[in-house]
Design a protein that fits this description.
- It is built from 1 helix and 8 strands, in the order βαβββββββ.
- By secondary structure, it is mostly beta strands.
- It has one domain.
- It has a 5-stranded antiparallel β-sheet, covered by helices on one side. The chain has a 3-stranded antiparallel β-sheet with strand order 3-2-8, with no helix packed on it.
- A hairpin with a 6-residue loop joins strand 5 and strand 6.
- It starts with a strand and ends in a 10-residue tail after the last strand.
- About 20% of the residues are buried.
- Bound molecules: zinc ion.
- Zinc ion binds next to loops.
């Protein structure tokens, strides 16, 4: 039953959904409070959309579903999403 891939599988879609590069991003689990890189989450693809689960407690952190060509991202199991701010373009 526990067929999953690592979080790298969703970084592309997740980054696209939020409009920023999430490869260095991390999540804080609402279930157990652990912090981990998005790349470390367990990703379940054999369900509608993609489900990201906590590598510590297995709780659902993020659900990404494409509906009518829009990515619907649910962050119900996440206390915090930590991402690098968009790089400012050089002003000089
Ligand atoms: Zn957890």
């Amino acid at each position: 039953m526990s067929h999953y891939v690592d979080g790298n599988a969703v970084l592309g879609a997740f980054s696209l959904a939020l409009g920023t590069d999430l490869s260095e991003g991390s999540l804080e689990c609402a279930g157990c409070g652990s912090s981990h890189a998005i790349a470390q989450t367990r990703v379940y693809l054999r369900c509608p959309g993609m489900v990201l689960r906590c590598p510590e407690c297995g709780g659902v952190e993020v659900v990404i579903v494409e509906i009518d060509h829009r990515l619907n991202v649910t962050l119900s199991g996440v206390l915090a999403l930590r991402i690098a701010p968009p790089r400012a373009s050089p002003t000089t």
